[in-house]
Amino acid sequence: MPPSGGLNVPLHPALEDLGSRTFTSKTTGKGKASFQRGGRRGAAVTVNPYLDNTPPAPGLAAGPVAKPREPRQLQFNQKGKYIQQGNALRRQAALEAMKKRIAEQARKAGMDEIPSDKNFVVEEPPDMEWVDQAYFAEGKTYDDIGTESCLVVEGEDTVVTDLIQHPIPIEPPQEKLVPAPKPMFLTKREQKKERRQRRMAELKEKQAKIRLGLMPAPPPKVKRSNLMRVLGEEAVQDPTAVEARVNREIAERFQTHMSTNEERKLTKEQRHEKLATNQDKDAAKGIHMLIFKIPSLVNGQHRFKIWKNAEQLALTGVCIMHPKTSLVVVEGGEHSINKYRKLMMNRIDWTQNVPSHMPAKATAEGGVPAEKGPAREWLASESESLPNNQIQLLFDGEVKIRAFRKWLSRVCDTDREAFDFLARSKLESFWAQARSGA
């Protein structure tokens, strides 16, 4: 094997016998050079694999044939092509700059301390799921399926038995949401007829009891209009005494009527009990949650209305007050939630900021400490203008269970404090959502 060349590439086998050839130059009239091969004169011509051996076309001289040039068409750029490319590059650069600016603002605000979704690492699946561990023998894995004594299906330690488990039937939740059938509404004419028939039946029953002696006959109902007809001779003899007696009877009947109404009226405790019962029935149909974002709660009246209405409507939740953003989370029955939504979105003027005249006790109950230290100076900014203090509804929907057992108010000076407090109820994502748009 001859030595390889400079690029460590061996010589082609067809070119290995060129060293044994002798070349002789002989000038002819045509100026052509002829050479004589080192072999016999009639030897076969060796084909060079590195040259184009395509035979020339008829009528053309023999020689190397150049590769034909492929035609190229003119391509014209449309108007504004490079302008659009430049605009796209500028938009991309502006987007990157905006991302950096938002990240810098979040870092200054302390939001960089809040963990993001990237920090949560998905754990690898276990070697064996817990639901399958009871069916495998000790030391066996999924790789041993198919071998003997891999699964424990017989014996005293097996969980496979000949018993059939019948789960307790659970009523579907849709049945408790079915509204009660509404009573039939009567027209005015039908209402009068029904009242007339009912009163006639009561009168006949009363007359039958009087006729049988079960109850005494009532005294005649004397009025000023029938005074002379009922008490004819007596009224003529002493009209002044008769008129006084009639007036006294009229007053007694009125007093009896008013006392009967008062007896039927519910007491204060009964009204509260009835309201609480209706609120419990409303909450039993499903728990609804509202989450509001309010830029500022420096007005004490706003804090008092938030707390007092939540207490009256039997709502649970929390009001988180922060120097930059405040968050209100309420949960309860559908009826109470609808009334609270109207209060927060329509009735309260959030741009109003007036000095608070509430007593210290009411302020403390509303969640704001009566004594304001240096860390709570931002809550006492009653002279601050609030033209852009607009409420925003972040979430409105139904949840499975309550996240809070009562109404709470919390003052948080840092994002980390508010984030950790909401993380106990698994609502920390709403704080990140509120602060990201702050």
TrEMBL record:
<dbReference type="Pfam" id="PF08572">
    <property type="entry name" value="PRP3"/>
</dbReference>
<feature type="region of interest" description="Disordered">
    <location>
        <begin position="1"/>
        <end position="42"/>
    </location>
</feature>
<dbReference type="InterPro" id="IPR013881">
    <property type="entry name" value="Pre-mRNA_splic_Prp3_dom"/>
</dbReference>
<feature type="domain" description="Small nuclear ribonucleoprotein Prp3 C-terminal">
    <location>
        <begin position="291"/>
        <end position="434"/>
    </location>
</feature>
<keyword id="KW-0539">Nucleus</keyword>
<feature type="domain" description="Pre-mRNA-splicing factor 3">
    <location>
        <begin position="48"/>
        <end position="267"/>
    </location>
</feature>
<protein>
    <submittedName>
        <fullName>U4/U6 small nuclear ribonucleoprotein</fullName>
    </submittedName>
</protein>
<keyword id="KW-0508">mRNA splicing</keyword>
<dbReference type="Pfam" id="PF06544">
    <property type="entry name" value="Prp3_C"/>
</dbReference>
<dbReference type="GO" id="GO:0046540">
    <property type="term" value="C:U4/U6 x U5 tri-snRNP complex"/>
</dbReference>
<dbReference type="InterPro" id="IPR027104">
    <property type="entry name" value="Prp3"/>
</dbReference>
<dbReference type="GO" id="GO:0045292">
    <property type="term" value="P:mRNA cis splicing, via spliceosome"/>
</dbReference>
<keyword id="KW-0507">mRNA processing</keyword>
<dbReference type="InterPro" id="IPR010541">
    <property type="entry name" value="Prp3_C"/>
</dbReference>
<keyword id="KW-0687">Ribonucleoprotein</keyword>
